[in-house]
Amino acid sequence: MHFSTAKLAMIVMSLVSVLVSANQPSNESQTSDNNIWRQAPALPIALQEVYPAVFKERIVVGGGFTPSKEPSFFGLGPTDSVYLLNPPTGRWQKKPSLPEARHHLGMVSNRHYVYGIGGFTGNKGDAWQIQSSVFRLDGTFREWRKGPSLPIPLAESVYANVGKHIHVIGGKTISKKTGKHVDSDAHFVLVNNAYWRKAKPATIVRNSAASAVIGDKIYVIGGRVAGADNVNVSDVEVYDTKKDTWTLVAPLPIASGGLSASVLDDKIIVSGGEVFGPDNNWRAGRAFKQVWSYDPSKDTWESLPDMPTPRHGHGMVTLNNTLYIIGGAAKVGPQETLSSVLAIETQSQ
Length: 349
Hints:
Blueprint: H1 5-13, E1 38-40, E2 53-55, E3 58-62, E4 65-67, E5 76-78, E6 82-86, E7 91-95, E8 106-109, E9 113-117, E10 120-121, E11 129-130, E12 134-138, E13 145-147, E14 158-162, E15 165-174, E16 181-191, E17 195-198, E18 210-214, E19 217-221, E20 224-225, E21 231-232, E22 236-240, E23 245-249, E24 260-264, E25 267-271, E26 274-277, E27 281-287, E28 291-295, E29 300-304, E30 315-319, E31 322-326, E32 329-331, E33 335-337, E34 341-345
């Protein structure tokens, strides 16, 4: 099934819009004619800073920040909880917990396993310890086991599956010189579920970007550059796994970090994100509710109707022609963490 971007927008505009979240006042669920997202089953708990994956026709969400009685970061703490959604049942199920709590845990799958890669651990006062360890869960969904560790610690990277290979690109790592967090252009590929090899580094050093895969190509979109102001970027570059090349394409219309992306009908749909205020003040920043569609055949971006509320740190996956936006937060940083899930699907014409 193939639609033009304009056709996709028409389909999108025909859908009914609903947003339900236990974390928002009731008036937040009221929507206008321009809000085209329907309600999907809400997460059992509020979660932000998640990277969900599709595995065995299920949506898997693990780790992340959640409101906690023993918070490590402004009322939030990392969780080891894992939830699985089988869309036809309309119900999230709790699955085996991760070996340890993680936030910003990168989840990605191939035909054999769903992986939880890197991310952060740590208690209050030291909640941002970047990890290199990797967990994986097979199709029996019984137990997480250790997978091959990353060559270096990485968090806030992008994670992609092309064919049978898992790619991890960019993000934050630890400087060997200073011991501090720095952005990375690293690119590693998991080969045969057994070992990591280096691949051609990204041309842009950044963290908190989004990614999507079309065919043999990985698109890395937006993100931010760590520093005093955590400056957002709008650059989009594409890694061709066959040619081992990076190419710049049309930039995202807005510079955004903490955004998310997935593919629907051969278009890349990008949603939300956030921008910090001056002097890295997240309280003075704002989250975005814009949604964009990228057509790789034309190298053009087109705006789609906004989400009902802003979101950053949310997950985004596509399963059976339905795109899901999962969790996140309605305000910048550790504020208004969400359990709600939005969905949109193409329809046969």
